[in-house]
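> tool_call: predict_assembly(chains=two)
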Amino acid sequence: MKITRTLREARRALGANKVRTFLTMLGIIVGITALTLIAAVGQGSKAEVTGRLSKVWGANPIMVTASAGSRSAGPHMGMGVGTGSQTLTYEDLAAIEQEVPNVRKASPGLVKSDVLAKSRQQSATTEVWGITPEFREYRSWDAESGEFLSDEDVQSSARVALIGSTVARELFGETDPVGATLRIENVAFKVKGLLASKGTNPEGVDMDDRVMIPITTFAHRLYNVTYLSNIVIQLQDVTRMPETAQAITKLLRERHQIVPPKQDDFGVRTPEGMVKMFAGTSQSLTLFLGIVSAIALLVGGLVIMNIMLVSVGERTREIGLRRAVGARRKDILAQFLAEAVAVSVSGGVIGVVLGVVGIWLLRLLTKTPALISWQAVALAAVFSVLVGLVFGMYPARRAALLPPVEALRTEE
Amino acid sequence: MMIDMQDVTRVYEMGGQQVRAADGISFQVEAGEFVAIIGPSGSGKSTLMNLLACLDTPTGGRYFLDGAEVGRLDDDALSRVRNHKVGLVFQSYNLLPRMTALENVELPLLYGTSAEDGKAARAALEAVGLGERAHHWPSQLSGGQQQRVAIARALITDPAIILADEPTGALDTRSGLEVMDILQRLNREGRTVILVTHEQTIAEHARRVISLRDGRIVVDEAVARPREAREELAKLVQKGVTQ
C-alpha cells in the first residue's frame, strides 16, 4: 500500500474522533513540551557559560602554568616571576607546538604581582603581565582606546604598556591615560592603550587591575628572566580538549623528568572545571524537567497503546474486510502503526510549539537562559516518532494477526 | 477448471470436541458457471464459503483455485489471491462508513499491484447503476444501493469468480431481485458466480444448485429453468403500477 494513502487513511481515522485523538495526544504533548524546554535550557546555560568563560578565558584555550610554592601570583596565571618554579621554558612551548596534535598555537606569558607602578602624581600596586599580540585573540580582550601591542613592540622590546581601567583611575584619575607615561621599577613606559573593562572574575579578582607590556620588555628590560609563567594553547578542535590536555601533561612530565612521587612543577588548566561550576546552577532544573518528560512520554505512550487497542477492537470487522479484499498482514500493521505515529507526531508538533512559548515565557519571567535550537526540535521529532512506533507496535500486531474469518464474523 | 475441490475437510476444535464443518466435499466448477450453494444453518455453508474465498484453508483434501492449490499458499499469497481472483459480496455489505461509495469501490486497488485508477472504480459504479452516487457516504444509501456498491467493489480487480454470501439476506424483495439481476447479468457476460443462500427461491436463479447437509454435499444438480430476476422485477413493477 502506498505510503501517502496510508497516511491519508490514518488522518481520516483520527479525524473521525477528534476529542479522543486529542486526549490520546495529551501525554505526548506534555512530554515533548518538557523535552523542548530541557534542551533549550541546557543549550542556553551552556551558551551562557561559554559566553562568560570566553570573557574570562578567551575562546577555549588550555593554559599551562608554572607552579610551586604556596602563593599564587594571579588567578590561573601561574606563579609570578620570582615566586614560583622556573622550569617552564620557551623550549617547552616549542615542543608543545610541534609534538602535541590538535595544538593550533602556543603563546608565552609572564606575570608578576605586587608591582609598584607610578605616574607623575600617584602610585599603585598592581600586576604586570608580559604578553604577545595574540593575547587579544585568545582572550578576546582588546584596547578600548588607543592601540593594542604590536609584533613590532615585541621585537623591539618597546617600552609601551596597556593598562586596565582600575590602574588608569588610580594613576591618572579622570584624565585620558593614553599617551601618558608611567614608571615600573624605574623604567618609563608610554601608555599605548586602555584595556576594555572586564570587571571581576568568578573568583573575585579585579581583572582591570593590570598592566600589560610586551613579553620581551618584561623579560629583558624589567626582570631579566628566561623562563615563562604560563603558556596559552589554542586548539584546532575544541571538543578534543581533554585528550590534548592529557597529551600536554604527558609531554611536560617527560621533559621535566617528573616521575611519582615527585609532584608536577606545572599545571594544565582547562576551562572545563569552570564550565561544570557554572552548569551546576541549571542542572537541577534540567533534571526536574527530564524526569517530567520521561514520565509524561511513558504515560503518553501507554495511553496511545490503550486507545489503539480499543480502536483495533472497534474496527475488527473493518480489519476483516480489508483482509478479505487483499490486505496482507503487513498492510494492516502499517495502517495501525501509521495511526499511532500520526498521533504521537501530532502531539510532538503541539509540544514543540508549546515548548517554544514556554521558553519565551521562561526568558521573560525568570531570566533563565534558554535557547531554541534545531537540536531540540530534532530531539522532539525523534522521540515522538519513537513513542508512536514502540507503543503502537503491540496493537498494530494484534490487528495484523487477527484471523480474517473471525474478524469478519465480529458483530459491529 | 475454475474450482476443483477434492475431498476437502475443515475440522474445528471446539471445547475439546472436533467439529467437522466440511466433511469430504468434492465438486468442480467450470469457468462461466452460476452455482448456488444451499443448505440450512449449520450445514457447513459458511465454512465452504470461507474456504472458497481463501479466507480459510482446508485441514484435509485439496482445493485448486484457477490451477493453484490454496492449502499450499502462505498468508501473503492468500491475500494476493483474495485480491486478484475472488470478488466477495457479503450479506451485511461491509462498506467502510468513513469512505465514500467511490472510495469503498477503490479499496481493493490499495492492496493490489495493478495500475487501475479512479476511472475503473467510477466505471464499476456506473455498471451497477450508481454513477451519480459516487461521492455519497454509505449511510446516505439504501440497503440495495449499498449492496450494489459492494458488488462494484467485488468487480474492481476484475476477478475470475464472484462469491456472494447471502447477498439478498438483508434486503427487501425488490432490492434483492435487483441484486440478483446484476449477478445474472455478470454471469451472462462470462463471469463465474457462486452464490451461498438458505432460500430456495434465490438459489433457483442459479443454473446449478449444490445442497449441503452436515458438511457434506447431498444434492448437486442443474436447474431446469432458472428464474430470471429481470422478468420478476418487471412483474413486480407492473403489480405496483396496477395496484
